[in-house]
C-alpha cells in the first residue's frame, strides 16, 4: 500500500519520494499503464532527453518532437502515449482520452495529414518495469506515492516542473516534499 493508501492500478501515477537516488526515478512521475499479479509497466513522464524522434526513426517528415526516457528497461525500443486511442489500432487505454501504443504506421499517417500534433503524443525510449510484487515492495518502503491525478493536465506543464505539480495535485503533507533539497545533506 502506498503512503497515501491509494492502490496502484493502470491509469494511476507514481510519484517518487524526494530522496530516491536512482538515476531513472529521482524526482520522477511515472504513468502506470499496466499493473497486475505478473508485474507492472509504466513510462516516466518527466525525463526529456537531447535526442529527437527523427534521430532514431525515419519517416516522420516535418514532425520531430522531443523524446523522453521512459525508464531503464528496453532502452532500444520506442514507446508512445497519445490522445487518439479510438483512431489508432492496437492502442490500450490508460486514463480518460490517454492511450499508449498502437500501430506506428497509423501514427505516421495521422501526423502527415496534420491530425496529430506534438501536443497530442509523447515518445519514449525504454520503459519502467517491475516484476511480480516488486512495485508493492517499493511502495512498502515508501519509495513512491500513488496518485489519481489527471495525467493529461499534468503533461501540459514543462517536464522540469511536473514532479512539483504532481505533488501539488496530491496535496497535504506531500506538498512539502517539493521544498526538500535533492541531497538531504544540503538541508
Characterization of this structure:
- With 187 residues, the protein is an alpha+beta fold.
- The protein has a single domain (13-164), classed as VC0467-like (3-Layer(aba) Sandwich).
- It has helices at 53-56, 104-112, 134-140, 151-154, 159-170, and strands at 13-16, 29-36, 39-44, 48-52, 66-69, 73-82, 92-95, 98-100, 121-131, 144-147.
- Strands 1, 2, 3, 4, 5, 6, 7, 8, 9 and 10 form a 10-stranded mixed sheet that branches.
- 34% of the residues are buried.
SSE topology sketch:
Elements: E1 13-16, E2 29-36, E3 39-44, E4 48-52, H1 53-56, E5 66-69, E6 73-82, E7 92-95, E8 98-100, H2 104-112, E9 121-131, H3 134-140, E10 144-147, H4 151-154, H5 159-170
Parallel strand pairs: 5-9
Antiparallel strand pairs: 1-2, 1-10, 2-3, 3-9, 4-5, 6-8, 6-9, 7-8
How many helices?
5
Number of domains: 1
CATH class wording: Alpha Beta
* CATH fold call: VC0467-like
What is the structural class? alpha+beta
Tell me about the largest β-sheet: 10 strands, mixed
CATH superfamily: VC0467-like
- Overall average pLDDT: 90
End-to-end distance: 28 Å
The radius of gyration is: 16 Å
The run of helices and strands is: EEEEHEEEEHEHEHH
| Number of β-strand runs | 10
| The CATH architecture | 3-Layer(aba) Sandwich
Helix fraction? Answer: 10-25%
| Beta-strand content estimate | 25-35%
Shape by Cα distribution: globular
Unreliable stretches, pLDDT < 50, 5 or more residues? none
Amino acid at each position: 500500500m502506498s503512503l497515501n493508501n491509494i492502490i496502484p492500478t493502470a491509469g494511476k501515477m507514481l510519484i517518487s519520494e524526494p530522496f530516491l537516488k536512482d538515476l531513472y526515478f529521482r524526482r520522477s512521475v511515472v504513468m502506470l499503464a499496466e499493473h497486475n499479479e505478473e508485474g507492472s509497466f509504466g513510462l516516466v513522464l518527466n525525463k526529456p532527453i537531447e535526442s529527437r524522434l527523427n534521430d532514431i526513426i525515419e519517416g516522420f517528415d516535418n514532425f520531430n518532437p522531443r523524446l523522453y526516457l521512459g525508464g531503464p528497461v528496453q532502452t532500444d525500443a520506442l514507446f508512445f502515449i497519445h490522445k487518439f486511442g479510438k483512431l489508432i489500432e492496437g492502442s490500450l487505454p490508460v486514463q480518460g482520452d490517454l492511450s499508449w501504443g498502437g500501430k506506428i504506421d497509423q501514427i505516421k499517417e495521422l501526423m502527415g495529414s496534420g491530425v496529430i500534433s506534438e501536443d497530442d503524443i509523447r515518445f519514449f525510449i525504454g520503459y519502467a518495469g517491475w516484476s511480480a510484487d516488486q512495485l508493492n515492495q517499493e511502495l512498502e518502503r515508501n519509495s513512491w506515492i500513488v496518485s489519481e491525478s489527471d495525467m493529461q493536465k499534468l503533461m501540459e506543464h514543462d517536464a522540469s516542473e511536473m514532479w512539483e505539480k504532481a505533488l501539488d495535485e496530491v496535496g497535504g503533507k506531500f506538498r512539502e516534499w517539493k521544498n526538500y533539497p535533492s541531497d538531504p545533506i544540503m538541508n
